[in-house]
Amino acid sequence: DAGVIQSPRHEVTEMGQEVTLRCKPISGHNSLFWYRQTMMRGLELLIYFNNNVPIDDSGMPEDRFSAKMPNASFSTLKIQPSEPRDSAVYFCASSDPGFQPQHFGDGTRLSIL
Amino acid sequence: QKEVEQNSGPLSVPEGAIASLNCTYSDRGSQSFFWYRQYSGKSPELIMSIYSNGDKEDGRFTAQLNKASQYVSLLIRDSQPSDSATYLCAVNSNDYKLSFGAGTTVTVRA
User: Å from A15 to nearest chain B CA?
Assistant: First the structure.
């Protein structure tokens, strides 16, 4: 079975540019999560979707970050404008509902110059 | 107090030995507990899930849960160099949110 698919795997861009990260969850999973991982802060939950609806976006750092899930098989995380402090690895994860484990994609390594 | 705390490590063990990883959590209502393995530059990979008190074994891995003590552990028996990674403890504090520990880095010496 295909796992969570993220693209791109690496992104290097200049400060001020718009960045769009993409995620395809595991088929049948109705919960989707976006995380950010840095050495300093570890894994941070940015936003959680259930049945395509954003439920908890309290982890989104500021208005420069936005996320959408237009359908059950696709989600985007957008940063506009990007800043060097946004450099991190961004993971998408999906799960079945309830107290089920989350399965992570390979991540996008983002570098903002 | 952090929601999930792990022994800080790094933990270095000789090949063939048992690696013992510990994790405590603050939310007494937590219901599901997971261990993830993360190799350097890779994503977290689920290796164990445990939901009830006691031990759960899967191959060389054993997870132990004690809800009264708010404690969960992971034992890796017959440690191999391929077990060298960071191990993340994760706890469901509600029906969707996973709280992660900072991770324990394990190095298995050949």
Answer: 24
